[in-house]
Write a structure and sequence with these properties.
alpha+beta, disulfide bond, about 375 residues, 18 strands, four-stranded antiparallel beta sheet
Length: about 375
C-alpha cells in the first residue's frame, strides 16, 4: 500500500515537471534601494547617447601696470611691463616680478668668497687654486684673504662684489603688482564637431574690454583679471606670497554640450596655488631665479647688475570635453545598458532574497504555485 502511494507521488511530480509552466511575477517593492532608477540616472547623466571630443587650445597673455619704487639698493625706479614680465612671452604661462635682491656694479675681478664651512680659512694652505665649489660664486685663487674684521675666506675670481641674498626685502619691493591686470586670450576648438570659439565672447566689444575686470557676480565673462583677485581666490595673501614667490594655476573649463546652442558653451574660470606650501616641509619655498643686465662703463669695462628675482608664475591650464548626439554610440550604449539591466535583475533578486531583513516576506510573494483549482500557494512558507 505504501509502495503504491510513493509510486503515485513520484509519477505526479514527474508529470508536473513535464507539463508545469513557469512565468515571471512582477513584484513591486517600496525600498530605498532603487537599482533601476540609479542605473537610468547614471546612463542619462553620463550622456551615453553622445559622441565626444577633447579640447584643443591656444593661449596668449598681456599684462599691464607700472610701479614706482624707492629702495636703498636701486634708488627711485619705475618698473614697467618689459622689466617685470619675464620672459615677455611664455607657453601658456607668464611670470610677474614681485621682489628683488639687486647686486649693482659687478665686474670680473677678485674678492673674498661668502663665508661658509667650506670657504672659511686661516692661511693660504686652506685654499686650493683653481678649485670651484659647487655652491660657491667663483674659482679659488689659492689665497686666504680678509672678509671682515674677524673672518677670513678663500679669494675667488668671480663677478665682484658677490651677491648676498641672506636678507629678503620686507615688504616685497613690487608688492603693488597685485593691482596689475592681465588679458587672457584663449582660443579653443573641437575638431570632430568643427566647433571653434574663444573666451572673448560675441557680446564683448572693444569699449567693454577696455573697462571691465573679471568679477564672478558683475563681470563673469570678462577676460581681464586683476592679479590680486586671482591670488585671493586661490586662498592666498598676495603681500605674503609676493615676498618669496609661488605658482598660481588659472583653470579654464570648456566642458560643453553641443546639443544645445553655441551661446551656452562658455568658459568657467577657477584659481588654485600649485606649488608646495607645507609648513612642515618648508625647504626651498617660493619661486625665484637670477638674471643679469649687462653694460659697459666709460672705460669699456664689462659690468652687470645681478638680480635675484622673486615672483609669481601664473600657469594657464585649459581643459574640457564636448559631447554631441550620435546614433552610433546611442545604439551601442543602449544595447550595453539593456544587457546590464538584465544582470541587475538577478542581482536585485539575490540582494532582496539574501541580504534584506524582510527576505522571507519577499520570497513568499516571489515564488507562487498555481494549482488546477485556481488556488495560489507560496512555495516558501
Amino acid at each position: 500500500m505504501t509502495e503504491g502511494m510513493g509510486c503515485k507521488n513520484c509519477c505526479s511530480i514527474c508529470l508536473q515537471c513535464l507539463f508545469g509552466y513557469e512565468t515571471n511575477v512582477m513584484l513591486v517593492i517600496n525600498n530605498k534601494v532603487h537599482f533601476y532608477n540609479n542605473i537610468q540616472y547614471v546612463c542619462w547623466v553620463q550622456r551615453a547617447y553622445q559622441d565626444t571630443d577633447s579640447v584643443i587650445s591656444s593661449v596668449s597673455t598681456k599684462v599691464k601696470g607700472n610701479i614706482l619704487t624707492n629702495s636703498s639698493a636701486a634708488g627711485v625706479h619705475v618698473w614697467d611691463v618689459p622689466e617685470y614680465v619675464i620672459p615677455p612671452q611664455g607657453e601658456n604661462t607668464f611670470f610677474v616680478l614681485t621682489n628683488v635682491i639687486p647686486t649693482l656694479g659687478q665686474r670680473q675681478s677678485k674678492c673674498p668668497e661668502i663665508p661658509s664651512e667650506v670657504t672659511k680659512c686661516e692661511s693660504d694652505s686652506d685654499c686650493k687654486e683653481g678649485y670651484s665649489e659647487v655652491h660657491g660664486n667663483g674659482v679659488q685663487t689659492g689665497r686666504c684673504v680678509q672678509y671682515s674684521d674677524t673672518i677670513k675666506t678663500c679669494e675667488v675670481q668671480a663677478w665682484c662684489p658677490l651677491e648676498n641674498d641672506t636678507v629678503i626685502p620686507k615688504p616685497a619691493l613690487l608688492g603693488a603688482a597685485e593691482d596689475f591686470t592681465v588679458l587672457i586670450k584663449n582660443n579653443v576648438q573641437y575638431p570632430k564637431f568643427k566647433f571653434r570659439k574663444r573666451n572673448i565672447l560675441h557680446h564683448i566689444n572693444s569699449t567693454y574690454l577696455k573697462n571691465c575686470t573679471f568679477d564672478r557676480k558683475t563681470d563673469p565673462h570678462c577676460p581681464i583679471f586683476r592679479l590680486g583677485d586671482m591670488v585671493t581666490e586661490a586662498g592666498e595673501d598676495f603681500s605674503v606670497m609676493a615676498l618669496k614667490g609661488g605658482i598660481i594655476g588659472i583653470f579654464i573649463d570648456w566642458n560643453c554640450d553641443l546639443d544645445f546652442p553655441e551661446r551656452f558653451c562658455i568658459p568657467k574660470y577657477s584659481f588654485s596655488r600649485l606649488d608646495n606650501k607645507n609648513p612642515e616641509n618648508n625647504v626651498a619655498p617660493g619661486y625665484n631665479f637670477r638674471f643679469a643686465k649687462y653694460y659697459k662703463t666709460n672705460e669699456s669695462t664689462e659690468t652687470r647688475t645681478l638680480i635675484k628675482a622673486f615672483g609669481i608664475r601664473f600657469d594657464v591650464i585649459v581643459f574640457g570635453m564636448a559631447g554631441k548626439f550620435n546614433i552610433v554610440p546611442t545604439i551601442v550604449n543602449l544595447g550595453a545598458t539593456l544587457s546590464f539591466l538584465s544582470l541587475v535583475t538577478a542581482v536585485c533578486d539575490w540582494v532582496m532574497l539574501t541580504c534584506m531583513k524582510d527576505r522571507d516576506l519577499y520570497a513568499k510573494h516571489k515564488f507562487i504555485h498555481l494549482n488546477q483549482n485556481g488556488d495560489s500557494v507560496p512555495l516558501v512558507s
